[in-house]
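Recall the central idea of this unit: under ordinary conditions, the amino acid sequence of a chain determines the structure it adopts. In this exercise we apply that idea directly, starting from the sequence alone.
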Amino acid sequence: MEYRFVGRSDLKVSAISLGTATFGGGGDFYKAWGETDVNQARRLVDIALDAGVTLFDTADVYSKGLSEEILGQTIQGRRDRMLIATKAGFRMSDAPDDIGATRQHLVQACNASLQRLGVETIDLWQLHGFDMLTPLEETLAAVDELVRAGKVRYVGCSNYSGWQLMKAMALAGEHGWPKYIAHQVYYSLLARDVEWELIPLGQDQGVGTIVWSPLSAGMLSGKIGRHQPPPEGSRIASLGSRAIVMPDEQFFDLIDLLRAIAQAHSRPVSQIALNWLLRRPTVSSLVIGARTEAQLIENLSASDFELTPDEVAQLERASARDPVYPYWHQRSVYKERNPRLC
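Accordingly, the structure predicted from this sequence is:
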């Protein structure tokens, strides 16, 4: 297993981390992701630990706390080997204030996560989304309070836009509050939008990228392609997908290329897609979810080899998209002065 620092912090994590959204299966939405119970979860954690995984990612909203509870039961007796990341900010109940990034909600949410996980400190606590109704100063002051109380070690965010993340970094610096060390984002060969602004921002500000859904909900697993629909019972078959952001023919051509490269390396298609992503700037860890032991084992060794420069270039060309304004203008007019534009 490869290990990387998260941004410019001293937090070092495994390049592959285990995501636990499949734990619990509470409600129709998360049931389509998986229904992993405690015994199954303990086995997946065992496999991940044996492979060198150190980072385990969850969120309070996953099955309304059940994912955290199940992960918490697998932690007992080996807390020193596990870095725990969770998230807060999404709606947890019908109560009017049980949502968002207010001080009231964040303090309650953090305490509830600690209780469900059965730990005294969360290693990486992430704001799950940006709250447009709460002053960012209130949010960051609450985060500072939780860090000072020893309940949180490091803080990050998820699903922020560029200006939101930059404003948070600037305010934290101005007031001496903890800065976000990580931004958890959707990123894959099918979804490269983060390269337009968020990756350059991360390079400039020292924010590490933690990737959710690096296989685009299974679209890059190798099980879907030309004349090959999603397998029955899969999450894509149950819920559909918002992962395809390119024309169908471009997607099929990309899958054909992934399969050719996979054959050349005697590797599964999923490992090729993950390995490409691990070579991108600022990427600290890929969050891998798995319903089965076989799925997890297949993806855990995605960092154990290197694609050739030519293969990387082929994948970049095959997955390229025309950027929106102002990024196409910046690239075409002032490209030589913007070396960090991916």
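The mean pLDDT is 92.
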